[in-house]
Each structure stands twice: as structure tokens, then as C-alpha cells.
Amino acid sequence: MNRKLEGKVALVSGSGRGIGREIARKLASEGARVVVNDLDAAPAEQTVADIRAAGGEAVACAGSVTDAGFAERFVATALESFGGLDIIVNNAGYTWDNVVQKMSDEQWDAILAVHLTAPFRILRAASGFIREAAKREMEAGTPVFRKVVNISSTSGVYGNAGQANYAAAKAGINGLTRAMAKEWGRYKVNVNSVAFGLIMTRLTEASADADASIDIAGQQIKVGVNPQVLKNAEASIPLGRGGTPEEAAGAVYMFCIPESNYVSGQVLVCGGGRP
User: Where are the transmembrane segments (predicted)?
Assistant: First the structure.
């Protein structure tokens, strides 16, 4: 069977759970060797185990993408484990919502750090390898296309009340995408964004528990959506429902395959037709 990503090496941040996990599994199923990341070691190792059980190759690189030195460690894991780097998916993140008058500097800074600064640092850390590899390949007459897929949101495209921090960060990642497409085009790197709408994960599942939360670096972040609010949101989607993590992964995959070699600097909305 001819797998489209055979021999490629991929970094996928935030891939221990949810959308990131399905992205890692999808890329691995098409032949990519994957460096799996999660804030916590156990989910990262579970994704690695699942990939290996399915016949793929993967290693874990646990830790927060916002930590000093993480980006360099992430890239080094790919180079040391698999000897190269072809695909970068900047997926890690979460939401911490509030209306602007109640939003603290901590909320603002945390969301900008994970959704915008961390991807910037990962791309910067990978730049040395990418430049040198592209130079060698072009001199040898064997150019290789590499892929960057940054995860954005419809909040970053259209805005969303109560998400000034998240919307600003995701709009920023779209700007970073377009800038990097122009900077790295000469290295044959396609840089694109996928802006997700409502995708059903642990962060967006229906929950009548107003106190439901997850722990992010010691901070309790509320998760889940009021069932009626979720029902109303789904009713506004032309396809009539929220997307699955597997469907979200499919949108990312499209930007990783050879068929997208002449597509760069684009933002693809994956939202079931909802603007």
C-alpha cells in the first residue's frame, strides 16, 4: 500500500488527547513517524502506544509548550529519534474565557503564550535544520517539500464574545502563518492554518456541571458547554452538528500531503459550513 507520508517525520504538539491525538494517529497511519507531545506524560505515552500498536512509529516528548527550552527539546527529539523533520503541527492549546472587563493579565498572557508564542518558538527552533536541509537538497537536485500546519479557530477569523484573548491569539497565528509562508517558501515549506469551528472534545462536550474543570499548570480552567448552549450552537451549523476529532484531523492531513505542495499561506475553515 502506498502511504502518502511514508518516511516523513512529524511534530504534533498537544497530541495526547482530543484533536491532536487524532492528528498524530492519522499522520502515523499514512507512514509518518511522529513525535507526540502533551502537557502530561501519561496521555502522550498512551498515544505513542496506540500508534505503535497499529504498526506505526512514535516517541513522546512531554511538557508544556510554553516552558523555556521546550521548543528546542521538541525539535531535538525529532532529529535524534528519527533523523529529520518534515511536518510541524502547532496544535497545543486551551481556552480561558471571560469578558474583557473581567479578564486578568494572567488570562490574557497565558492564552497568547500557548497559542501564539509557543508556535513561534517551535518554528524558530526548527529553522536551522530546515534551512540547512533545504540547501543540501536543492544543491543535490532532490528538493523536498515540508509542511507547517498551525491550528487556528473560527474565533480568530470572525471573533467571538468572551474570547478576546483566544480570538487575538488565533488571529495572530493566521498572521504568523502568512508571514512564514513568505519567509519559508524559498525552502519549499508550505505553511497553512486550519481554523476549527465546533469540534467535540473534552473542552466542548455538553456538561451541566458549571464547576467542571481541568488543571493547566496548577490553574483550574473551566471546561464543557451548557447543554442548551451546545444544542443552539449545533443548530446554527449547516451540517447540523459539531465535528469529530477525526474529521478535524482530516482537514490538517490535507495540508500535509503532496497534493498540497502548491498551497501556502492559506487559512482553511473547518466548521461544518458555519461562518
Answer: none
